[in-house]
Amino acid sequence: MNKTKWIICAIVALVVIALACAAPYFLVGAPAEGLVKVRKGSTIDMISDSVQAHVDATYGKRVATMLKMMGAKVENREGAFRVTPGMSPFTAARRIKNGVQDGIRFTFNNVRTLDEWTNRWGETFMAGPDEMRKALKDSAMCAKYNKTPQTIACLLMPDTYEFYWTVTPEKMLDRMFDYYNDFWTSERKAKAEKLGLTPDQVATVASIVEEETSKADERGKVARLYLNRYQQGMRLQADPTVKYAIGDFTIKRITVQMTQVNSPYNTYRVDGLPPGPIRLPEKSTIDAVLNAPQHDYLYMCARADFSGYHDFTRDYASHLDNAHRYQAALNARGIK
Known about the structure:
By secondary structure, this protein is mainly alpha-helical. It has three domains: about 80 residues, no CATH class; about 80 residues, no CATH class; about 110 residues, no CATH class. It has 14 helices and six strands. The chain has a two-stranded antiparallel ribbon with strand order 1-2. Strands 3-4 form a two-stranded antiparallel sheet. Helix 2 runs antiparallel to helix 3 and helix 5 crosses helix 6. About 5% of the residues have low confidence.
């Protein structure tokens, strides 16, 4: 009887010890959040290193142990797997083993150039910036979306989107084309047509407006001014297009010499609109163009008080007066 009791006690003790050893793998959760990125050809130890780098060292070793106990074949596994605070090593290992990857939220706004956007995209997704840059410059790829390399930026409407880390440039552009078509409803298209513009031309005007003023409550007024000039056959003579043509948005003062730069984007030299947007305009700015309030202003100049707003005029003589005041204010501040 005593022998039986001892055996039972020993078994219970072994079970308790086993449970105590197993508890960290099933009960002790991750101390922090992290995104574990796994490429094809990765070993369990490489995955463990990634977990240790992005979550916690001890936790990473436990995930590796669980993967080995599961007999997980990870060589062909690929994706990004999000570990959340409190997630057990067992759950994390099972998700990696089964390939249950998580989407990555990609937010972009206040982006000027395609190159800037491409670099931001490349820092977020597996394909990297070079593959995306190649896709955006590919005329055949752009034609798939009824775009050119100059207008493909119109697809990239600032917002928050979600993609898998493994998304290819083409798959991503496919999705962005869907979002683009969702935005350009029949009502918006009708408004663009009434202005005598295509949706992509509206986006081009919006890009100029957004560079011209940071004041959201002024964008509709600025948009109407450019629409007035465009519809009357006047050159837009928009300073932001000169900066874009030169490749320097830090310029504070546009000179006559700068306005002579030879570029299809320089609206001081070319008639009509540039061949595409000079930045990625916000949806709200596109709507500001489509709903621009009526007025008959043709000229504008930044206010001499540096408030960020503009003075608008109908005649060139009044515009010159405003320009002289602004130039004097620049001189007073030593801005060249």
